Amino acid sequence: MKKIVSIIVLVIISFFISQAAAATGIEEQLIPAFLTGTPQTTVANYSQDEISTNMQKLELLYRLVERDFLFDIDHKEVYESMAKGLFSGLGDDYSAYIVSKEAADFSEDTSGTYGGIGAYISKNYLEYRDFTKPETYMVNITSVFPGSPAEAAGLRSGDLISHIDGEPVEDWEADEASKALKGTPNTPVVLTIQRGSSEFQVTVIRKIVSIPTVAAEVLDNGIGYLRIIQFTTTTGDQVREDLSKLLDEGITSLIVDLRDNPGGIVDATMNVADMMLSDQLIVHVNSKDSAKNRSYVSSSRTLVPQTMPVVVLVNNGSASSSEILAGALKDNERATLIGTTTFGKGLIQIVSPFGDGYYTLTTSQYRTPDGNDIHELGIPVDIEVEDLEIEEEEMDAYMEFINSGVLTDFVEEHPDFNKDNIELFVDTIVGDDAIFETDIYRLLIRREYLYQMPYDDRPIADTDYDRVLKRAIEFLETGN
Q1: 3-state DSSP call for residue 102?
Q2: Are the C-beta atoms of 328 and 277 separated by less than 8 Å?
Q3: Is residue 40 part of a domain?
Q4: What 8-state DSSP symbol labels residue 338?
């Protein structure tokens, strides 16, 4: 077993939200010349295995095309297509060759802001579309930022976008879709959404979107609340800083919210686990070469006292490296998991710069400390509580209400953000004709108030209407 060391690898639910700067490289001389763009003049040094046989065939085919093709050849485009095809042939959703221009808009700097809807997206390359499978030619929403316009419009992880401002996206590359979603703050973008068997339109007002990864505050009764939105290269330091502040303020218990956390840098996850575990297993990492299998153990030093009760909130949007943290804390009986079963992605990718782009490649699989393989299964919770959701058959009515202007008008007339005004909205605007659960209306008006506030002034946790969080607080206060 090994103590925590630096593993610069990436666990990703969508390879477009990865951080290429964190990649580990490989020596180029180990790569066949055809992939580096160097002309291959001989194959005499290749052993006659299947790879070299295929490479010879491919080179011959390429040269035949070059000799006989009527039109000029864009060799860079051909190379990029061959590189993409190599990874596509692996049949692995998480391995791909990505040209830098296609990935440039998918990873915003965590300290920056932009005008947009506040969601991570992904989209298949055009050559890999299957028109019997909408997820292969529509834009996939992989994660929605908390407090974002996308969240306010009811969008969620797993939604598919078929049209942006009336334009079908099926012939767009992912960067085109990303650019179409971004724009001047306070301008509308109309999205056609497919969710299961339902299709509906959503008008989202672009806003200045911040991309935080960590947020924290002290709740009543000395409960610390820490939300980790994604694991990036800076998340470990951010968590350490926020946890230190919470501890300085005298918290007696801790809630770690990993809901809708799509994963990210494994190093950051390991660092956070190390703050809560002492000389305990964090994760097992198994590779193709069994000699490289490793089990990683936390150090003996912890930031969070071992006697402090910890609850972790998860849902189906909690994936990849967020599952490493949840699994480590659960298996070591360091935390109670509350919410719903996690996504289930137990594969690890490296991300390495190569040529004008970079590639992601699945190189290992992880198991929880108890040896559980969670891939496509997820991690079950200790206490199941479902978040509020709009049913598919209710979406048309929901969007009609969202776009009616009722929320904005009420906030303008009653600008003070307090519980009395939220209840006033429910009593006077919604009344007895409520189509949805009353708490959904409360959430909607609460969010509308938050959008009118500077980001740094917004309350982080919703202890009034967030059912999962309320159950966690109840558990910490009563032990049940």
Answers
A1: helix
A2: yes
A3: no
A4: E
Q: How many domains does the chain have?
A: 3
Give the whole-angstrom CA distance, residue 182 versus residue 296: 41
Q: Which two tokens stand for residue 350?
A: 């490296």
Half-sphere CA count of 406, side-chain side, radius 13 A: 15
Using DSSP bridges, classify how beta strands 207-210 and 113-116 pair: parallel, antiparallel or unpaired.
antiparallel
What span, in angstroms and rounded, lies between the C-alpha atoms of 368 and 371? 5
Please tell me whether the overall predicted TM-score, pTM, comes out greater than 0.85 for this model: no
Look up the domain containing 413 and give its range: 392-464
Residue type, 456: D
pLDDT tens-place string over residues 230-279: 898 889 998 999 999 999 999 999 999 999 999 988 989 999 999 999 99
- Number of CB atoms found within 10 A of residue 420's CB: 9
What is the C-alpha separation between 472 and 255, in angstroms, rounded?
7
Range list of β-strands (E), 46-112: 96-99
pLDDT (tens digit per residue) in 93-123: 889 988 766 544 434 432 334 689 988 888 8
Please name every residue paired with 208 in a beta bridge, in sequence order, or none if there are none. 115
Q: Where are the beta strands (DSSP E) in 129-187?
A: 139-144, 160-164, 167-168
Catalytic residues: 320, 331, 345
Q: What is the CA radius of gyration of the chain?
A: 24
- CATH assignment at residue 223: 3.90.226.10
Same domain, 201 and 266: no
E strand spans, 206-280: 207-210, 214-218, 223-228, 253-257, 263-265
Q: Are residues 136 and 172 in the same domain?
A: yes
